[in-house]
Amino acid sequence: MSIPHTKRVCQLIKLKPEYETQYKEVHSAVWPGVLAALETHNVADYSIHYFPPLHLLIATFKYTGTGYDKDMKAIGEDPITQEWWKVTDMMQESFNDGATGSGKDIPWWTEVEEVFRMEGVLHR
């Protein structure tokens, strides 16, 4: 089933190697309030992948709303999400100079440019 969306987002951040096991453990049971905030603010099809050789976390999601900046700000103001970030931010290292954590003026995760997309299924 296809999810309608207005924007696809891909973000990167470095996972501190000593937190690999712990990071995977906390993400095996993401807090329901965090998931609810994402859903309420039009985030769908969210996933995080890990590339161990570079300690790289790669997050992708679809944004299905019409006010991306407003929704991202609202997620950042959610108290449960803020508590979640206190747990996860300490395990990460931002690529953005001056970033001090999620929900601040300088983005914690680095958003990357989409250079190719193929949608749908080819019919033969």
Automatic annotation (TrEMBL):
Xref: InterPro entries: Dimeric_a/b-barrel, Rham/fucose_mutarotase
Superkingdom as given in the UniProt entry: Eukaryota
Pfam family, one: rhaM
UniProt cross-references to SUPFAM superfamilies, sorted A to Z: Dimeric alpha+beta barrel
GO MF term set: racemase and epimerase activity, acting on carbohydrates and derivatives
Name by which UniProt lists this protein: Rhamnose mutarotase
Upper classification of the organism: Eukaryota, Fungi, Dikarya, Basidiomycota, Agaricomycotina
